[in-house]
Structures are given as structure tokens and as C-alpha cells.
């Protein structure tokens, strides 16, 4: 029954116009970035290398597909959660608002399976969004800008990663980025189980992300102990794959924290939805 | 299956401090079109939602097909088709797709042919490919009935299925329900606040008011238990009223309007009264013994 | 009177030394001018604090007097100043004075130290100190102080192309004290480590050069084309 309802969920997601908003916006955003890079990419790059350029000159194709893919990931990881929540925040509460949750809950499928099938559908949608991002960033961008070494600026300085050493880093970072987005999906599904309309969970999800991100970026000792456990702190952990050497310990820690978040959020959603009196 | 199809015992449900259902009990037998009658806010929907596991009751037991709902939820729901209040569908999907989706999680897949036949049965043939967002309330209601029947359940639960329909729609839905009984031998539980509806369709019923079940039995028996209301259109109604009161002092005669008078009488009194008035020289223009459930219902809920 | 005498002594001694220095520079420039153009395979290894990069292979192209191009598949880091600046600077005799700094042994080779001071205001080079192997007419070491890029030290090792005065290896030592990390870019949520302040302020770039193709003729267009 779980698979049957998951299949139903896919049909619903495919038929809903809002599912395509995410893909469309993502595509538009990426093409805006590409246009900007094509038009004035060199000045963007010199902003990255400015500190060193007084003394050193950087030769070779710096503004290549790998760098732009990195810039895209860096810029969009803040916005993609909204696109994810737009669809996943509606999965349970949208049905409550439409009244179809009543129809669904009177069918011989357990409520746990209803939540799980929505979680699976949300996870697949998030995966499609991530794969689309990966396709645009790694295939289309590279086709337009060519490939080359990747120059990354992080807190410990500049790292230049060689072309042949980059793809595996992207694949791994897309996986971790997916896990982070999946947490957003689980969060909005969880909030969706508490709500009767779809706006509430979508706005709440974004509110929580903004709040946690602010707490995470504030240099105040009071928050130091909790920062580590906020899922938003680990949303940028994909970036760690572009360190040299890669800090696997940090990455594993992020993966564990994100997975635990997912499990907890889905469990809360299941418990809440099972106890919920459907009165709509 | 022998024995009752539905057995609800001492069902209670509270929302906060508000007791929506208090100690409701009733039994539905196989083949019944069971009327679940009560005014708005009586607790009908809450009871039905408890029966479909949409709401968890605070106390009491619900057994359907001889099995406890709490322990055999999926098995029971597998064999029930229902509409609660109004059928809601995925507006952005076609009627066919909606039926396909609900059939898939109702325990059995339905073929395109079965879906088509069902759409025909409810009078929606040719509209299957249309998106539900363009459907009128009546069409949705018919699609709702198609949805309840598609997986061929033995028990159909319809909560206020004619609410919001125009007179034509009401007649269509009523006819559909009657066909379910006659053509498909389904057991139907039908909730309504419209007594005429129950009287026309149901063979058994329970009346529920303020969260309590008031009375249960066959519609005919419940009606026959009561006195008739005899309405007579008679010439010289004032003298006629005096004559009746003198001859039958136990009767209370009321003037309704014009030359129409009314009194509550036992069944055998109808012919006697006709004979008496004609014998006394009064002209009788009409004589109508009324045995409407409305009167009984009003009496019950006013208690 | 005493001051006049002192001034005269200084003037004569300076002019005597400059003559020598000018001759040395002229010999050096003469050798530099032997090379009209060249291309060379380079292996560039940068060891600069705050920059992590693996050695990169590139091809360097040069054409008199100041055309220079690096073609690299990867990103190659070179010092901003120093690769061709010294030779093009020395080529224009009217823009500097050369002062003899005497003889000095460098890695067992007797060198003549010449300090070159620009006489024009718009020169980016503020001071250049050259250790010149007068026997082979090549520079073994340069200390370059520039207006915009701080100081750069270059050490040259010669081999196969000694006749053209082209080195097999150049080691640049650059001053990195001006490096600042832009905070907006470096803010990395996951990296709780504070930006490290580098203890070392010196960066070195070692370029191994091989496979010279000298005076084969390179068109001017080639230098205009983007990689």
C-alpha cells in the first residue's frame, strides 16, 4: 500500500503546476547567473583573487564551468529550500485544505504509510530538483564555459583544485547538499502535518531556516553550544569537499546530524498525523 | 456474513470540554438503507468520522463486519465506500485520474473499463477526461458516489450526500442510492438532517440529537407507533368543532386555516370521524390522515 | 672647501663605478637581445602561504620587447612582476642609472652586484639589485622592489640555454604581507576555524623550464589571442 500511495503522490506532484515553479525558477536563476558571468565574469573573479593580485598573476581559464558551478551552488543553496518547501509544505496540509485528506484517511492505508509515501515523494521531488541543479551546473555550464581548474576561496585561503580532482568532489557535495535539502523537505512535511493550509508550513519552514541561519552566523558565545546541532549549520557542509585535505570528520558529523534530523522530523510527522482528528 | 454490519456501542467523543457525541449506540443490518437522522450539530458527522477512523473516540466500541474497528482498521475500510459531507477531489486532476487514485488505495486497482462503467452509472459518461475543477457540486457529488462504489465495497456510508444540491441533483442522488440497494444489494448508512429524505429512502433509522441516540427502529414501525394527524376540510367548521368535542371529549380539535381543522386520532378513528360528520349533516371537502415523520421528528427533538 | 673635496671624491668614485656597471649592463642587454622570441615548457610549483595549489605545467611564450603569454590548461600562478620586467627595463638605457655594488660570491660563483635605480617617475620598479655573472653575462639573482607589488627576489639556475642567457629554473621569492582575505567570500558556515594568520610572510614560486624553442618566430597575433 505504501508503494501504491507513493505512486499516487507522484501523479499528484506531476499534475500540480506549483511543482514546475521550482524547476522553472531554478533554471531562470542559473541562466541569470550565467548571463552575468558571461557579461562580467572577470570582474567577479578578480574580486575573489583581488587580495593576491598585487603580487601574483593567475594564468589560465579561471572563469570556467567548474568555478561557475561552485558559484551557482554557493548562491542557490540559500534559495533552493524555498523551492523545496513550496511543494513539500503542501503535501499534507494542501490535502487538508482541499478536503481530500478526509478521502485519503478513510481508505485502507495506514496514516503512517500516508506520511511515509509523502516523505518518499517529497524526497524524490527534492532529488529531481537537485539533479536538475547538478545537470545545469555541471553539464550546461561546462558546455558553455568549458572546464578547468577550480579556484576556491575559503577561510584558510585560496585552494586551486586540479580539473581531474574536481568531479568526485562535486558528486559528493551534491549528495550532501541533497541531504540538507531533504531535511528542509522533512521539516516542511512535519510542519504540514500540524497545519490545515499550505501557506503556514511553507512560511514557517523558511522562518525556521532564516532564524537558524542567523543564530548560526552570529558570533555570540551563548549560541556556540547549539550551533552544531542546527541543521542549517550543516547545509553548507557540501563546501567541505572543496577543502584540501577534505575534512571527512566534519562531513561525517554533518551527515549524521542531517540524517538524525530527517528521522526525527518524519517520526514527529507520523506521530502527529496518527493522533490527529480529521475534522476538515 | 450473519449478524449486524455495523454495531456502535456507547460511543462518546469530546472536543476539549464540548461533548459532541455522548453514549451513541445503534445497529445496522445487512441490506439496510439505514437513516442516521438528526438536526445540524447533533453529532452525526462526528459519529460517522469515528466509524471511519477519521476521529478517535474517547470511549465506546465500533464493530463493522463483526470486527472491532480499532484492531482491524484496514481490513474494514477495505470494504467501505464513503462520502463525508461533500466529496473533495484533486481539482487539478481529471475525473478518471481521481477515481484511479482512490481506487489504487482502496484495496484494488480498477481497469479503465470499470472506471468508465462507473462514470456511466453515475451519469458522468463523456466527462471522465475533464478536470474536476470545472465540475458543478452535483457532478462532484455523483463522482463521489462513483468513488465510493469503484472498489465494490459491501457498505456505503454517505454523510449528508444531498447537501447543497439543487432539487434536480437531490432527486438524482436519491435515485442513485435507491439503485445501490436494489441493483447492487449494498448496505447503506445515510446521514441527513432532512427527514423527508430518510422517510423516502431508508428502511431503518436512528434519530440522534445533542450527541445522544434518541430512538432506533424500522421507519415504518416508528411511524406507525404514533397517532395520526387528521386534517379535515369541512363546511361550517365552528359547529363541526363543537359537535366533535361534544361527541368525543378526549379529542383536542384545532382550527388550522379557512375551514380546515386538525386533531390527533388513532388509526381506526379516521373512518368513524368521517361517518359522524356526514351523519351530522356537515359537508366534507377533504379528509387527510397525516403520518409524516417530520411531526414525529420535531416531537423527539423538542423533548 | 672640505665639503667640496668630499663631494668631488664621491662624484669621481661613483662615476668610475657607474662606468663599469654600465658596461656590465650593456653586455647583459646584448646577450638578452640575442633572443628575439622563445617558447618553453614550464613546471610551476607555488609554495605560498594561504594558497594551496599543486604543480602546474604550462607553456611560456616571449617575444621582444615585452610580449609575454602563459598558456596553461590549469591555473598557473606567477609573480606579477619579475619574469620579463627586468630585461625590458634594462633594455631602455635612458630610464635608469646603474651603480656598481662590487664583487660578491653567490653560491660559489663570483658575481658583480649592480644596483639599478630608475630615473623616470612612472617606473613601477623602484630599485633593482642584480647579481651578475660577468663571465657568462647572465643574472644569477635579482632583488626587485616595485611600487605596486612589493619586493620579489629571483634566483636563476642556468643549463642548456646558457648561451642565450635563458635559465632552466627560476625561483621567485615574493613578499606576501599585503594579503588580506575578503571576509564576505571566506565566510564559510561549516568552517568554524578562524582564518589563520600565516606565520610565514614569504612565498616561493619555482619554475622549471625545459624544451626551449628560441628564435623560431612567433607572430604578434598569437599574443593577442585569448587562451
Please provide the ordered H/E string of secondary-structure elements of chain B.
EEEHEEHEHHHEHEHEEHEHEEHEH
Order of strands in the sheet with most strands of chain C? 4-3-1-12-11-10-9-8-7-6
Strand order of the largest sheet of chain B: 6-7-8-3-9-10
Determine and state the CATH class of the largest domain in chain B.
Alpha Beta
Give the integer mean of the pLDDT values of chain B: 87
Helix content of chain B: 25-40%
Description of the molecule:
- The complex is a heterotrimer of chains A (about 280), B (about 300) and C (about 230).
- Chain A is mainly α.
- Chain A has one domain (about 1-275).
- In chain A, about 70% of the residues lie in helices and about 5% in strands.
- Chain A has helices at about 1-15, 20-55, 65-75, 80-90, 95-100, 100-105, 110-145, 165-195, 200-215, 220-225, 250-275; strands at about 55-60, 150-155, 155-160.
- Chain A has a two-stranded antiparallel sheet with strand order 2-3.
- In chain A, a hairpin with a 2-residue loop joins strand 2 (about 150-155) and strand 3.
- Chain A starts with a helix and ends in a 5-residue tail after the last helix.
- Chain B is α/β, with parallel strands linked by helices and about 300 residues long.
- Chain B folds into two domains: about 5-215, Rossmann fold (3-Layer(aba) Sandwich); about 225-300, Alpha-Beta Plaits.
- Chain B has a six-stranded mixed β-sheet, with helices on both faces. In chain B, strands 2-1-4-5 form a four-stranded antiparallel β-sheet, with helices on one face. In chain B, strands 12-13-11-14 form a four-stranded antiparallel β-sheet, with helices on one face.
- Chain B is elongated, with a radius of gyration of 24 Å.
- The two termini of chain B are about 40 Å apart.
- The mean pLDDT of chain B is about 85.
- By secondary structure, chain C is of the alpha+beta class.
- Helices cover about 20% and strands about 45% of the residues of chain C.
- Chain C has helices at about 1-30, 85-90, 185, 220-225; strands at about 35-45, 50-55, 55-65, 65-70, 75-80, 95-105, 110-120, 125-135, 140-145, 150-160, 165-175, 200-215.
- In chain C, strands 4-3-1-12-11-10-9-8-7-6 form a ten-stranded antiparallel β-sheet, with helices on one face.
- The termini of chain C are far apart.
- Chains A and C meet through helix 2, strand 1, strand 2, strand 3 and helix 9 of A and strand 2 and strand 5 of C.
Amino acid at each position: 500500500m505504501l508503494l501504491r500511495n507513493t505512486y499516487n503522490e507522484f501523479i499528484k506532484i506531476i499534475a500540480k503546476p506549483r511543482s514546475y515553479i521550482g524547476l522553472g525558477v531554478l533554471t531562470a536563476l542559473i541562466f541569470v547567473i550565467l548571463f552575468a558571468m558571461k557579461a562580467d565574469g572577470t570582474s567577479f573573479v578578480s574580486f575573489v583573487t583581488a587580495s593576491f593580485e598585487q603580487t601574483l598573476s593567475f594564468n589560465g581559464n579561471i572563469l570556467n564551468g567548474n568555478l561557475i558551478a561552485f558559484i551557482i551552488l554557493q548562491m542557490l543553496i540559500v534559495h533552493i529550500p524555498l523551492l523545496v518547501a513550496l511543494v513539500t509544505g503542501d503535501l499534507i496540509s494542501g490535502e487538508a485544505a482541499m478536503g481530500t485528506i478526509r478521502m485519503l484517511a478513510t481508505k485502507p492505508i495506514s496514516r503512517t504509510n500516508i506520511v511515509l509515501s509523502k516523505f518518499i515523494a517529497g524526497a524524490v521531488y527534492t532529488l529531481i530538483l537537485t539533479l536538475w541543479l547538478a545537470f545545469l551546473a555541471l553539464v550546461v555550464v561546462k558546455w558553455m564555459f568549458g572546464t578547468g581548474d577550480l579556484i576556491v576561496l575559503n577561510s584558510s585561503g585560496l585552494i586551486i583544485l586540479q580539473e581531474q580532482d574536481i568531479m568526485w568532489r562535486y558528486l559528493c557535495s551534491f549528495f550532501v547538499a541533497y541531504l540538507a535539502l531533504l531535511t528542509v523537505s522533512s521539516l516542511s512535511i512535519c510542519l504540514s502535518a500540524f497545519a490545515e493550509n499550505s501557506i503556514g508550513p511553507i512560511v514557517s519552514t523558511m522562518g525556521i531556516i532564516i532564524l537558524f541561519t542567523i543564530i548560526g552566523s552570529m558570533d555570540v558565545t551563548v549560541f556556540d553550544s547549539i550551533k552544531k546541532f542546527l541543521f542549517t549549520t550543516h547545509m553548507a557542509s557540501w563546501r567541505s569537499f572543496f577543502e584540501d585535505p577534505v575534512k571527512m570528520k566534519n562531513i561525517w558529523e554533518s551527515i549524521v546530524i542531517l540524517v538524525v534530523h530527517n528521522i526525527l522530523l518524519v517520526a514527529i510527522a507520523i506521530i502527529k498525523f496518527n493522533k490527529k482528528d480529521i475534522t476538515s | 456474513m450473519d449478524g449486524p454490519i455495523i454495531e456502535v456501542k456507547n460511543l462518546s467523543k469530546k472536543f476539549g470540554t464540548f461533548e459532541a457525541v455522548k453514549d451513541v449506540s445503534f445497529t445496522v443490518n445487512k441490506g439496510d438503507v439505514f437513516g442516521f437522522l438528526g438536526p445540524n450539530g447533533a453529532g452525526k458527522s462526528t459519529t460517522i468520522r469515528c466509524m471511519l477512523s477519521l476521529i478517535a473516540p474517547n470511549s465506546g466500541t465500533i464493530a463493522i463486519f463483526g470486527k472491532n474497528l480499532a484492531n482491524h482498521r484496514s481490513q474494514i475500510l477495505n470494504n467501505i465506500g464513503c462520502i463525508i459531507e461533500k466529496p473533495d477531489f484533486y481539482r487539478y486532476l481529471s475525473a478518471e485520474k481521481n477515481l484511479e487514485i482512490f481506487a489504487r488505495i482502496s484495496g484494488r486497482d480498477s481497469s479503465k473499463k470499470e472506471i468508465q462503467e462507473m462514470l456511466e452509472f453515475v451519469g458522468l459518461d463523456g466527462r471522465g477526461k475533464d478536470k474536476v475543477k470545472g465540475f458543478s457540486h452535483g457532478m462532484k457529488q455523483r463522482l463521489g458516489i462513483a468513488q465510493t462504489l469503484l472498489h465494490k465495497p459491501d457498505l456505503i456510508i454517505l454523510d449528508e450526500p444531498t447537501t447543497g444540491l439543487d432539487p434536480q441533483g437531490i432527486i438524482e442522488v436519491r435515485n442513485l442510492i435507491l439503485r445501490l440497494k436494489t441493483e447492487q444489494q449494498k448496505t447503506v448508512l445515510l446521514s441527513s438532517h432532512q427527514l423527508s429524505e430518510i422517510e423516502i429512502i431508508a428502511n431503518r433509522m436512528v434519530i440522534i440529537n445533542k450527541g445522544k441516540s434518541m430512538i432506533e427502529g424500522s421507519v415504518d414501525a416508528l411511524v406507525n407507533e404514533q397517532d395520526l394527524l387528521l386534517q379535515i376540510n369541512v363546511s361550517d367548521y365552528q359547529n363541526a368543532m363543537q359537535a366533535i368535542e361534544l361527541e368525543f371529549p378526549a379529542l383536542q380539535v384545532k382550527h388550522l386555516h379557512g375551514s380546515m381543522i386538525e386533531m390527533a386520532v388513532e388509526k381506526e378513528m379516521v373512518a368513524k370521524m368521517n361517518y359522524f360528520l356526514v351523519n351530522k349533516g356537515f359537508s366534507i371537502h377533504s379528509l387527510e390522515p397525516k403520518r409524516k415523520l417530520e411531526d414525529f421528528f420535531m416531537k423527539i427533538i423538542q423533548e | 672647501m672640505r665639503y667640496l673635496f668630499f663631494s668631488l671624491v664621491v662624484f669621481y668614485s661613483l662615476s668610475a663605478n657607474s662606468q663599469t656597471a654600465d658596461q656590465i649592463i650593456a653586455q647583459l642587454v646584448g646577450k638578452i637581445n640575442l633572443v628575439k622570441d622563445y617558447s618553453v615548457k614550464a613546471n610551476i610549483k607555488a609554495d605560498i602561504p594561504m594558497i594551496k595549489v599543486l604543480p602546474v605545467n604550462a607553456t611560456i611564450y616571449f617575444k621582444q620587447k615585452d610580449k609575454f603569454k602563459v598558456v596553461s590548461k590549469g591555473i598557473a600562478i606567477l609573480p606579477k612582476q619579475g619574469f620579463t620586467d627586468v630585461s625590458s627595463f634594462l633594455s631602455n638605457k635612458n630610464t635608469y642609472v646603474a651603480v656598481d655594488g662590487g664583487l660578491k660570491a653567490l653560491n660559489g660563483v663570483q658575481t658583480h652586484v649592480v644596483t639599478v635605480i630608475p630615473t623616470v617617475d612612472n617606473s613601477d620598479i623602484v630599485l633593482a639589485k642584480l647579481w651578475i655573472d660577468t663571465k657568462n653575462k647572465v643574472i644569477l639573482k635579482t632583488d626587485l622592489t616595485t611600487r605596486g607589488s612589493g619586493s620579489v627576489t629571483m634566483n636563476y639556475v642556468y643549463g642548456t640555454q646558457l648561451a642565450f642567457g635563458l635559465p632552466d629554473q627560476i625561483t621567485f621569492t615574493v613578499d606576501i604581507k599585503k594579503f588580506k582575505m575578503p571576509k564576505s567570500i571566506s565566510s564559510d558556515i561549516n568552517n568554524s576555524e578562524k582564518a589563520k594568520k600565516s606565520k610565514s610572510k614569504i612565498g616561493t614560486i619555482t619554475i622549471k623550464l625545459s624544451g626551449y624553442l628560441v628564435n623560431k618566430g612567433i607572430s604578434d597575433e598569437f599574443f593577442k589571442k585569448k587562451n
